[in-house]
Write a structure and sequence with these properties.
Helix content is about 25%, strand content about 25%. The protein is an alpha/beta fold. The chain binds guanosine-5'-triphosphate and magnesium ion.
C-alpha cells in the first residue's frame, strides 16, 4: 500500500474553507462505497486508529475487511454537531472540504438520487471494469447531465480484476464516451482505479504506468467551485407569514430561508409573481443579535416598511436586480419520473418549486427516453416510470422561477402525485403561452354548453335588471363583508334577484390532496369562477368577497365568468397591483354610504336600471 505524502493531508477539522458537494453514482456493486471509504482513509479524515480497529473487528468476526465498513463506523462521529443524513460523508484536502453523497444505485432509490444529486456541484460515476457498462451506468450518466451537473469524472474501477489492462480501460472509455456524446456531455475525464487496492485514488499507481492523468483526488480538487450562494442574485422564497400577536400591532414577519444572495435593511424588495413592493425594515432571526444583513442559507424573518399582504410561496427579490426571475405559467423542463403511474396530460399535479406550491399540468412531451435504453421516442403523450423527458408544463397561476442555468435553487422542482414525489426536474426555459389550458377549457366549455329555450334578454326583462358577478376585494377587513351583505339586502328588498356567498362556503368538498393553503385558494377561485358563470346565466346578481385577492385571481375569475362580466369593488387597500377595480372605496366611514357607491356603480353599468333609495 502506498503511503500518503504529509502535504496532501489536511490536519485541521472542518473549517470555513471552501466546501464542495459531490455525488457518487454508479451501478450496484461497482464500488461506490469502497471509493468513499478509501478517500476517507487516504485523506487522513479517519480518526486515529479507526482503520486498524475496523480491520481488527473484521478479523475477529472472520469477515473480509471492506473499505465500505468505514462509512458505517464513522457515521456517529461525523454526524456530531452537524446535521447529516446517512448518505453523506466528509473528507478534506488541503484545498477544500468535501461532502460526498452516496446515491444508491438501485432503481427504487433513483428518486433519492434526484434530491441527493440536486445539491451536488460535481459527480463521480463508478463503472466496474470487469462487468462493464450496465443499465444504471447509463441511466445515472444521463441523470447527471439532466440535473445540470456538468463536472463529472468517470472512475473505471476494479482494474485489478482485469490485470490493470489499458485495452480494457480504453475500450470501456470509448464505449461510454460514445454514449455521453449522444446525450451531449463532453470533456469528461476517465480515471482507471482500483478502489480496494488504492490505485490512482490519491497517488498514481505503479500498476498502471500507462496512465499519466489525474488521480481521483487531484481531479476533485480540479473541479471548479461555483460562486458562493451569497454572491448570486438575491432570492427569498416566502415560506410563512406571521402576524405579531400583540393587539394593535399589525406588523407581519415574512419568514423563510434565503436561497441565494444577500440583503440588508433599507433594501427595496419586490414580491413575485404579485409584483408588490416594499422596503426591508428589520431582519429578525432566532436567538441572535439584531442583524443589518442576511445572506444565503440563513433562516430569517423580515418586517417591511409598508404593510403588505402577500401569500406564502411568493419569491422576494431585490427590486433593482439586473437578474429578475421569470414570471409565467408555461415553462420547458427536463424531468425524471419515478411515479408508479405515468404522468399524463389530463391530470392536475402539484408542483413544488422553492416555497411555491402550484397545480401543474403536462402540456407537451417534446421528447422522452428510457433512461437505460436511451431509445428516443418522440411520439409519446405521457411520461412513464423511469423516463427522462423534455416537457412543457403549465401552472394554473403564474409563478416566479429561474432557469437552472441562471439560478439553481429556484430552477429546480419536484412534482407530487398522490402525496408522493413522483418526479423531479429542472427548468430549462420560460415559454410565452399562446393558448393557455384555461382559455382552451373555456372555449370547450362554451361549445358544449347546453342552453334552454330562455335567452338572456328574456331573463333581464323579467328580472328588470341584468345579471352581474360582483366581487369585493381588498386586504383582510370586516367592512368588505358587511358592505357586500348589506348590498344583497338592499337589492333584495327592491325585488332584485340577488345572492351573496363568501369564498369560504366553497371549501365544502375540496379534495383532500389540495389542503395546502395556496392550492386551496387556487381551487376555490376556480370553483367560484365556474359557479359565477352558471349563476350569472340564471340572471342573478351574484356577490362575493375575497380576502387578499391578487391580480391573477381576478384574471382567472374574469376568464371563468366569460361570456358574462364581472365588476370588481375594492374596499380599503386593494392589494391589487396592475388590475384597476371598477370602484375603489378607500375609507369606509359607514356601510350605507359604501353600499350607495356600489349601487351607483351598478346603475352606471346599467345592471340595475331605475333605483330609488
Ligand atoms: P451498492 O452500494 O450496493 O450499490 O455497492 P457499491 O457501489 O457501494 O459497491 P461497494 O463499494 O460496496 O463494492 C462492492 C464490492 O466490490 C465489494 O465487495 C468491494 O470489496 C468490491 N470492490 C470495490 N472496489 C474494488 C476494486 O477496486 N477491486 C476489487 N477487486 N473489488 C472491489
Ligand atoms: Mg454502497
Amino acid at each position: 500500500m502506498k503511503r500518503l505524502g504529509a502535504t496532501d493531508i489536511c490536519e485541521e477539522n472542518m473549517t470555513d474553507k471552501e466546501q464542495m458537494n459531490i455525488v457518487i453514482v454508479g451501478h450496484v456493486d461497482h464500488g461506490k462505497s469502497t471509493v468513499i471509504g478509501r478517500l476517507l482513509a487516504d485523506t487522513g479524515t479517519l480518526p486515529q486508529g479507526k482503520l486498524e480497529f475496523v480491520k481488527q473487528m473484521c478479523l475477529k468476526n472472520a469477515k473480509p475487511f471492506e473499505y465500505a465498513f468505514l462509512l458505517d463506523a464513522l457515521k456517529d462521529e461525523q454526524s456530531q454537531g452537524i446535521t447529516i443524513d446517512t448518505a453523506r460523508s466528509f473528507f478534506k484536502t488541503k484545498k477544500r472540504d468535501y461532502i460526498i453523497i452516496d446515491a444508491p444505485g438501485h432503481i427504487e432509490f433513483l428518486k433519492n438520487m434526484i434530491t441527493g444529486a440536486a445539491r451536488a456541484e460535481a459527480a463521480l460515476l463508478v463503472i466496474d471494469a470487469k462487468e462493464g457498462i450496465k443499465e444504471n451506468s447509463r441511466r445515472h450518466g444521463y441523470l447527471l447531465s439532466m440535473l445540470g451537473i456538468k463536472q463529472v469524472a468517470i472512475l473505471v474501477n476494479k482494474m485489478d480484476l482485469v490485470d490493470f489492462s489499458e485495452e480494457v480501460f480504453e475500450a470501456l472509455k470509448k464505449e461510454y464516451t460514445t454514449f455521453l456524446n449522444k446525450i451531449d456531455v463532453r470533456d469528461v475525464d476517465f480515471i482507471p482505479i482500483s478502489a480496494r487496492e488504492g490505485d490512482n485514488l490519491v497517488t498514481l499507481s505503479g500498476n498502471m504506468r500507462w496512465y499519466s492523468g489525474m488521480t481521483v483526488l487531484s481531479k476533485l480538487d480540479n473541479f471548479v467551485h461555483e460562486a458562493p450562494d451569497e454572491q448570486k442574485s438575491f432570492r427569498f422564497p416566502v415560506q410563512d407569514i406571521y402576524k405579531f400577536t400583540r393587539e394593535e400591532d399589525d406588523r407581519r414577519i415574512i419568514a423563510g430561508t434565503i436561497a441565494a444572495g444577500s440583503i440588508g435593511i433599507g433594501d427595496n424588495v419586490l414580491f413575485l409573481p404579485s409584483r408588490k413592493n416594499s422596503r426591508i425594515k428589520s431582519i429578525e432571526s432566532f436567538n441572535t443579535e439584531k442583524k443589518e444583513m442576511a445572506s444565503a442559507g440563513e433562516a430569517v424573518g423580515f418586517t417591511l416598511e409598508t404593510q403588505l399582504y402577500i401569500r406564502s410561496g411568493e419569491l422576494m427579490v431585490l427590486e433593482n436586480s439586473s437578474h429578475l426571475p421569470k414570471i409565467g405559467n408555461r415553462f420547458k423542463a427536463n424531468i425524471f419520473w419515478v411515479g408508479r403511474a405515468p404522468m399524463i396530460m389530463d391530470k392536475t399535479y402539484k408542483l413544488k418549486l422553492a416555497a411555491t406550491r402550484a397545480s401543474v399540468r403536462l402540456v407537451e412531451v417534446k421528447q422522452s427516453l428510457d433512461a437505460s435504453e436511451l431509445t428516443t421516442v418522440n411520439t409519446k403523450k405521457q411520461v412513464d416510470r423511469h423516463d427522462v423527458a423534455e416537457c412543457v408544463f403549465e401552472t394554473a397561476k403564474p409563478i416566479a422561477f429561474d432557469t437552472i442555468e441562471d439560478l439553481e435553487a429556484t430552477g429546480r422542482f419536484v412534482i407530487v402525485d398522490n402525496y408522493e414525489i413522483a418526479g423531479g426536474g429542472i427548468v430549462i426555459e420560460n415559454i410565452q403561452e399562446n393558448e393557455s389550458i384555461l382559455k382552451q377549457h373555456i372555449k370547450d366549455r362554451e361549445n358544449i354548453w347546453d342552453k334552454g329555450f330562455i335567452d338572456t334578454i328574456e331573463r333581464e326583462k323579467r328580472n328588470k335588471h341584468k345579471s352581474k358577478f360582483v366581487v369585493f376585494v381588498g386586504v383582510e377587513n370586516a367592512a368588505k363583508q358587511s358592505i357586500a351583505k348589506q348590498l344583497e339586502r338592499e337589492l333584495f328588498d327592491k325585488d332584485h334577484n340577488v345572492y351573496y356567498m363568501g369564498l369560504s362556503s366553497i371549501d365544502h368538498g375540496l379534495d383532500a390532496d389540495i389542503k395546502s393553503y395556496d392550492l386551496n385558494m387556487e381551487e376555490k377561485v376556480r370553483r367560484l369562477g365556474e359557479l359565477a358563470r352558471i349563476l350569472t346565466d340564471t340572471g342573478l346578481i351574484f356577490i362575493t368577497t375575497i380576502d387578499n385577492a391578487d391580480d391573477y385571481d381576478i384574471e382567472i375569475l374574469k376568464l371563468l365568468s366569460e361570456p358574462n362580466e364581472i365588476s370588481v369593488v375594492s374596499v380599503g387597500e386593494s392589494g391589487l397591483v396592475k388590475f384597476k377595480p371598477d370602484l375603489e372605496i378607500k375609507e369606509v366611514s359607514n356601510t350605507e354610504e359604501a353600499v350607495k357607491k356600489v349601487i351607483n356603480l351598478l346603475m352606471h353599468k346599467e345592471v340595475i336600471l331605475e333605483y330609488y333609495l
